[in-house]
Amino acid sequence: MLSSLAAFAMFGNQVRAQDYPKRAIRLIVPFTPGAGTDTTARILAQKISPILGQAVVVENRGGASGAIGTDIAAKSTPDGYTWVLGTDPPFTINQHLRKLPYDPVRDFAPVSLLATVPLVLVANPSVKAASLKDLIALAKASPGKITMASSGNGTSGHLAAAAFMAATGTEFYHVPFRGQAEAVNDVVAGRLDLNFSAIPNVFSLAQAGKLKILAIGAPKRFGGLPDVPTIAESGYPGFDVSAFHGLLMPAGTPLAIVQKVNAAVVEVFGMPDVSSRFEGMGLYPVASTPDVLASFLETESARWAKVIKDAGIKDDGT
Known about the structure:
This protein has helices at residues 2-19, 36-52, 67-74, 88-93, 132-141, 156-168, 180-188, 199-207, 255-269, 272-280, 290-311, and strands at 25-29, 56-60, 82-86, 108-117, 119-123, 147-150, 173-176, 194-198, 212-216, 243-250, 284-285. It is globular, with a radius of gyration of 21 Å. Helices cover 43% and strands 18% of the residues. The termini are far apart. The protein is built from eleven helices and eleven strands. 43% of the residues are buried.
């Protein structure tokens, strides 16, 4: 009897997947328009819509370091018509700093990784350091005197700075903002010295000479900056402060629908123009199985939890 019920349920899921989608899909981005996650979501939506035969509409629901939009997705009907663009704070960082209205593991069905996002260490051109080695020597000579801007307490940029200080034995004065744009603007203006940022946020500014990129936090160099070394190869092996973009749905979404969307994502990321556009923005495009994304989230969550604990970072209530 049970096997008959299981077979019936499986058949029902397959039928639903064959008919899916019948209407437009919303893709929630838990941040404001213009952020890197927003760009990734809009590229995906544009390319995947013709494959699925329905519009994928990007819906920006920012606030609370991504928790507001992510919670909306978590509580949506698990029918395949709500997706969420996942990234570090709401899926691998926030749970170690504060109580969340959702569970980033139990409340979601992973679909696919979309991209890894290298963080780079940038400085105002007036900082008297031409290399990472110079900066570390400068910082050790004047502990706490060099300022480090971040997009907020507990963000990936803040945690990257904490990991960097722990690895190099340096101390910087942390200045949190309420967004990455404000943090970068103050470094460009010379009011602050340093910032860890995703490449898309600072690449054009570096090309214009308004910032200098001292090192890359990812395990490998970025093709658009072939002469900029990684922190790992500069004497700190294993150092990695990359962020990520991924696609998830509410838990309980039929597996057949998850698999259908996953196949469409893989098709999108096999398109040469998509890969080149991502790489041009400073992102490493990655399409994966749902299991790979699930494992990745677990590993990243543990990594950031250790950084938070070791640095004694606490929730500041923002």
